[in-house]
Amino acid sequence: MSPDDKIIRYIDSPPSEGSFNMACDYYLAESIMADSDYILRLYTWKRPAISLGYHQKLSDVDIEKCRKEGVDIVRRPTGGRAILHHQESTYCFIAPITAESGKAHLKSIYRSVHNALSKALNDMGFPVKFAEDNRIRQKHNPLCFASSAGAELELGGKKIVGSAQRLLDKAVLQHGSILTGPGHLRLPQYLNLSDDEREKMCGDLQEKSTYIDIEDNPAFRCKIAESFGREFGGKVVDSRLSAKEISKIENNYNFQLI
Prior knowledge:
Helix content is 31%, strand content 24%. It has one domain: BirA Bifunctional Protein, domain 2, CATH 3.30.930. It has 7 helices and 12 strands. Helix 1 (18-30) packs across helix 7 (243-252). The strands form 3 sheets. A 6-stranded mixed beta sheet has the order 10-11-6-2-1-12, sandwiched between helices. Strands 4-3-5 form a 3-stranded mixed beta sheet, sandwiched between helices. Strands 7-8-9 form a 3-stranded antiparallel beta sheet, covered by helices on one side. By secondary structure, it is α/β, with parallel strands linked by helices. The longest helix is centred in the middle third of the chain and has 18 residues, at 106-123. It is globular, with a radius of gyration of 18 Å.
């Protein structure tokens, strides 16, 4: 496929449950072929959900409190730390690439995705910038939005986008949260922490993350899709999940933890 033939399959999804969102992202990445198009999916969450990184412990979460307050807990097919998905716009970008050759391109794809997001947000009036490359992550902090590192996006020195990436056999899957409200700040309330730990983590989130005050709507998503088209040199083609795809997602994958 020549560069002029590149296509980005753009899926503007309706709000869905957390388990479906994670299963959909994984299915689209797992089922991609070597000569397939790029895939960009933008979506929101039907109700608040905590997603844990692929290797993160469920014991980090107060399961009973989540059940009582109707907060789902799901497993992400990617790594990273805990996120409370509430008041955000979520993206998923999938690039067909083999596992053998993909390792050399992971960092460039990660940065290109964030470059597309940065340009879109800047065009909408939000002066988003890349975090400084020498920023050091807090290794023992279970919160995604409590730390930033190079190639991640910040607004006013605070993290605005949290992303995770995984290399599969035939594709790179990258997805992440664009914060559009303060809902993520409630995450420490659902973790198994001492009062002192909870207070500190609440402070960390307040200090190190922020959000853009914008409504997630078709126009907002369209600007993001157009920016991906320019960044990856592809034609953006609107698409929907087929009934067959939805059936496979619902019947063959389960990322629900409670």
